Automatic annotation (TrEMBL), chain A:
<keyword id="KW-0249">Electron transport</keyword>
<keyword id="KW-1133">Transmembrane helix</keyword>
<keyword id="KW-0349">Heme</keyword>
<keyword id="KW-0472">Membrane</keyword>
<feature type="binding site" description="covalent">
    <location>
        <position position="66"/>
    </location>
    <ligand>
        <name>heme c</name>
    </ligand>
</feature>
<keyword id="KW-0479">Metal-binding</keyword>
<feature type="binding site" description="covalent">
    <location>
        <position position="65"/>
    </location>
    <ligand>
        <name>heme c</name>
    </ligand>
</feature>
<dbReference type="InterPro" id="IPR036909">
    <property type="entry name" value="Cyt_c-like_dom_sf"/>
</dbReference>
<keyword id="KW-0732">Signal</keyword>
UniProtKB/TrEMBL annotation, chain B:
<comment type="similarity">
    <text>Belongs to the UQCRH/QCR6 family.</text>
</comment>
<dbReference type="GO" id="GO:0006122">
    <property type="term" value="P:mitochondrial electron transport, ubiquinol to cytochrome c"/>
</dbReference>
<dbReference type="InterPro" id="IPR036811">
    <property type="entry name" value="Ubol_cytC_Rdtase_hinge_dom_sf"/>
</dbReference>
<keyword id="KW-0472">Membrane</keyword>
<protein>
    <recommendedName>
        <fullName>Cytochrome b-c1 complex subunit 6</fullName>
    </recommendedName>
</protein>
<keyword id="KW-0999">Mitochondrion inner membrane</keyword>
<keyword id="KW-0496">Mitochondrion</keyword>
<feature type="disulfide bond">
    <location>
        <begin position="48"/>
        <end position="62"/>
    </location>
</feature>
<keyword id="KW-1015">Disulfide bond</keyword>
Amino acid sequence: MRTVALLGAGVSGLLGFATVASADEAEHGLGVANYPWPHAGILSSYDHASIRRGHQVYQQVCASCHSMSLISYRDLVGVAYTEDETKAMAAEIEVVDGPNDEGEMFTRPGKLSDRFPQPYANEQAARFANGGAYPPDLSLITKARHNGQNYVFALLTGYRDPPAGVMIREGLHYNPYFPGGAIAMPKMLIDGAVEYEDGTPATEAQMGKDVVTFLSWAAEPEMEERKLMGFKWIFVLSLALLQAAYYRRLRWSVLKSRRLVLDVVN
Amino acid sequence: MPSNTVSISKLLWFKNVRADEEPVDQKKYLEEGCKPKCVKQLRAYEACVKRIEGDESGHKHCTGQYFDYWACIDKCVSSLP
């Protein structure tokens, strides 16, 4: 009697999954293609001109909603801008500092040591300004999402009309790559939205590529040094492996080539 | 001449665009070019759209065929040099 009840419960439980499975595809988001990033090879460095352009895109398009609270202005020196350029850029923002000798907080122009400015005071303010959705901090975003670089590029350049039969509510936008398909962020990368300093035509795909390169650098600034170190040490350790293998076999040859004789004792 | 991105990137075909022309978005251009490769999925999607035409329940949708089509296009676009 109990087994029949259990079996019934199991079957109805499995049937419950039938409707969930049909929504599965949109839930996971459309699979992302792997693009040929210039910095993807085993000994490839970042395209620093692209990092510079990407920072420009971030500043002009994304920074009004997305913070990058782990990056300081000094991180950009030698990577995308000269020290003087970075100092000038930092000086354009106002930073709250203090307290001073009178115990008051005061504002001053930014310095190299300051972090990138936050668009909102806290998460609640960010949610309130964006219809309940929190624009995530982008400092580590390419590491914080599966297949991050390709995912972010696909997401930014993938805003399309929804498929037939799919209704997106007012305030959300359709993006097939976003899990669930309905994202709060509208399409931000539009041809010509940014005028690049170096004169590169700012198409959607170009801005997407540059901003993702910038975000990749922000998440993994150590990448170039890491690759060089990795290559050097893997090479050195392979030689050490060969030496160790030879030495082991040399020492063990004595035992491996011995002969044992079993004799009968009277 | 502005120094453009690394040559391996698919975004370096600007030499084909005249200075007075409005640059075309590279990804859209490649997606257009990939359409003939994915005709089967496109037809399947269009057939689905026709099938669910006039559906009142709101439960019918063509996400599956839409995903198949765009997965095909994405694969084609990312494999082009």
